[in-house]
Automatic annotation (TrEMBL):
PROSITE patterns: HTH_GNTR. SMART domains: FCD, HTH_GNTR. InterPro entries: GntR_C (IPR011711), TF_FadR/GntR_C (IPR008920), Tscrpt_reg_HTH_GntR (IPR000524), WH-like_DNA-bd_sf (IPR036388), WH_DNA-bd_sf (IPR036390). This is GntR family transcriptional regulator. SUPFAM superfamilies: GntR ligand-binding domain-like (SSF48008), Winged helix' DNA-binding domain (SSF46785). Transmembrane segments: none annotated. Residues 21-88 form the HTH gntR-type domain. It comes from Intrasporangium chromatireducens Q5-1. Keywords: DNA-binding, Transcription, Transcription regulation. One of its GO terms (molecular function) is DNA-binding transcription factor activity. The keyword Ribonucleoprotein does not apply.
Length: 240
């Protein structure tokens, strides 16, 4: 990582915070969403006091949340300046998406095949969350989309009963920030991805493990195609 420091960009699009709840956790989740949507750019340095002013909260929960993100490898400390967003190249991002596929595709298939009783009840309760994802995609509300999408997938995976799977996938989702999310939204791909969530609910309730595996492969494939396309374009540019 180089030592150059890039200036902060335009004001961030932020949700409101519930000051009665855990502010550190709320701020951390919002920061993750800003990273995932690309509003906080790789290589740029952000100071806790300035972010706190934008959030309308004190600097302490912002600084604590940033340190949480440091431990996750999403940002790094820049002495006397703030926190720099770390950079992953498209090949690294694609490798993380591939790993997600190796884990999520079979596990979601198993959840579908085991979907009866309390599991079926829990799956049906995910339908409103799927609707929330679809609405967020339709309005280009990328922060709500990423937060709801992560909650949907981690709650679905949790029905398999292996908490380590959930922890690993959550970590990979945090690390594989969707820098191309705005492009996916503009191309209409995000809307298609959002609709796949309710299709997953329906496949599980039918106990159709094969269809679930197809849906998850397709779902992650949207992301991989974005990164792979950028990596190919970069390589072509370098070769030209």
């Amino acid at each position: 990582m180089g030592t150059s420091v890039k200036a902060e960009e335009a004001p961030l699009r932020l949700p409101s915070f519930d000051t009665r709840a855990n502010l550190r956790q709320q701020v951390a989740e919002t920061l993750r969403a800003l990273l995932i949507t690309g509003q906080m750019r790789p290589g740029h340095v952000y100071s806790a006091p300035k972010l706190a002013a934008e959030f309308g909260v004190s600097a302490t929960p912002v600084r604590e949340a940033m340190l949480d993100l440091v431990s996750e490898g999403l940002v790094e400390v820049v002495r006397n300046k703030g926190f720099r967003v770390t950079q992953l190249d498209d090949h690294e991002l694609d490798a993380l998406a591939e790993l997600r596929g190796l884990i999520e595709v079979p596990v979601m298939g198993m959840v579908a095949e085991q979907c009866e009783g309390r599991i079926a009840t829990a799956v049906e309760k995910l339908r409103p969350l799927a609707h929330r994802i679809t609405k967020a995609a339709a309005t280009n509300d990328l922060i709500t989309y990423t937060e709801a999408d992560t909650e949907f997938h981690t709650r679905f995976l949790a029905l398999h009963g292996n908490e380590h799977v959930v922890a690993v996938v959550r970590d990979m989702r945090h690390r594989s920030r969707l820098y191309g999310l705005e492009a996916l939204a503009g191309a209409g791909v995000l809307a298609q991805m959002s609709e796949e969530h309710e299709q997953m609910v329906d496949a599980a309730l039918r106990r159709d493990g094969e269809q679930m595996r197809r849906l998850m492969s397709q779902h992650i494939g949207h992301i991989r195609s974005t990164w792979a396309g950028r990596a190919t374009a970069a390589a072509s540019g370098a070769g030209g």
